[in-house]
Each structure stands twice: as structure tokens, then as C-alpha cells.
Amino acid sequence: MHPYIHEYFRRLRLLAWNKREQRPRSLVRVELFLILYMGIFLALPNLVWPSGDSVLRSATLRVLLVCCTLGLLLGAAKYLDKRSVRSFGLRITHRWASDALAGAVIGGTIPVAAVGLGVIGGWITVCNPRYTPTSTYLQNIGLVIVITVSIAIAEELVFRGYVLTNAIEGLDLRWLSETTTLVAAWSVSTLLFGLVHQAPTLVAGIHFLSAGFLLGLAYLLSGQLGLPIGIHAGFNFVSGYVVPMTSDPSLVIVPLSVSGPAWLTGQTGLIQTGLQIPAALGILGYLWWRTGRVGVAPRIRAKLDDEWADKIK
Q1: Contact 266/245 with Cβ under 8 angstroms?
Q2: 12 partner at 20 to 30 Å CA-CA among 83, 90, 208, 237?
Q3: Whole-prediction pTM
């Protein structure tokens, strides 16, 4: 082989493979993981339940997606990352469960507060319930809880657990400070989260980006996925089914009449987007109450240490 060609392939290999850590580099790991995840996400409905729009079908597919995502994460942890799966924010303890519950309260409060502001502003009117608590209705409520929790688990495993964890390590460069590394990794995770959510308008795009920052903040400060999963699930359930601002929701607990513009009062409107700021303060307050401190979690800062040097020797 010509020396120039040999050198070209050597440098190409250096870009994709970390010889010291004996694993693919962070960028390669993230790319492979996202390609496999998107393949599963797109193929699963066609392979398992090709048609229909029932709540049961949606719940079944979401649960299967969570199972596949967990399997993908286990495989990536063993063969790509060569680390414990618990390092992705899955160190399950009683605190993890309490974080998830607190997160659900924080996330659910955002749309409730948005409705309150909409009522005060005259853009929203609370209507009388149109549904009776039949067994079918209660069953559907249970199914939509499964749907929203499953969506939250799958997306947080991917964008906070895997992407943000690897982005922190991949951007841990000598010429970047710890703060710059964390902010850059946080931004990468948020951008990818925003890109996979269809945003028909600029306002909706801003909403998804700000949601990504909020969920990333919860992960960076708590060091576990319990809090961001709770926030994600609580917001989706309350905004999608408890007090939905869509014109024709398939299932609703408290029906609303919305006369305000969608860019202001919609589920991705500016009111709900702006309320993510007090939600972030709620995250800080909760973690200060639980741990007595506010700052990046020790297990997140530990990812910035050169731990692989000792392991590979």
C-alpha cells in the first residue's frame, strides 16, 4: 500500500477509534446509536401493528419502543461504550423514584399555570366535562398514562441518558473549561432533541429547544434520569389530556374553549414556553431541598475526569 494511502487510513481510523480507551469515539457512538434508534422507531409500527389509530395500539407500540430502547442501551453500554448501563442515569434507588414524582409535579404544573394565565387573559374558558367516567373512559385514561410515560422514558434514555452523557465526554477537550464543555454538550443534546420533534412554526421550534434545555438541566443537576423523565411525562400527560389546548383532542379530562392565538396559548405557545423558566427554578428548589446544594451533580463532573487512563493501563 502506498505510504500516503496508509497514512490516510491511519488518520481516518484515529478519527473514529479511541486507541487509549479501546472503543469508538463519542461522535461515532452517538451516530450509531441514533441511527439504530431511528430505525427501530420507524420500523416498529409497520412490523408490529401496521394500521389503526386506537389508543391501545399507540400504548402497545410505545411500550415496545421502550423495551427496544432499553435493549439498545444495554447493547451500546457493553459493545460501544464498554461501561455499566447505570452510568446513563439509571442508578435506580428510592431517590430516583422520588425525583420522578417531583418531576411529574413540576412538568404538570406548567400547562396548568398556562391555562390559569389564559383564563385570566380571557383567551381560555373552562367548559363543563363532556365525558362520564365509564370503564372504557377510565381504561383510556390508563392507556394514555402508559403512552406519555413511555414516550418520556424512551426519549430521555436517548437524548439525556446516551447523547448528553457521550457529548460531555466527547467535548472534554484540554482547551475547553469544564463549564464550556458542559454547556456545549447540553446544547448538542438539546439541538438533537429539537430536530427530531416536528416544529411547523418558529414558536414551536423555540418551545422544543427550551424544553430540551429544561430536561437537560434536570439531568445535569440531578445526575439521574428520574427527574427529567418525570418532568417530560408530567408535562405531556397534563398538556395533552388533562387540560389540552388542541381544538379536537381524542381524550380530555378538563375540556377548554381556546380563543387565543395558537402561537400564544397553544401547547407549544409562548405562554407554556415562558413558564419553563419558573419550572427551572422549581428544579433548583427541589434539588436544594433534597440534597442541600445546587450545582452540577458529582457523577456528571466525574465524566470530565480522565478515568479511562487508569482502566486501560
Answers
A1: yes
A2: 83
A3: 0.92
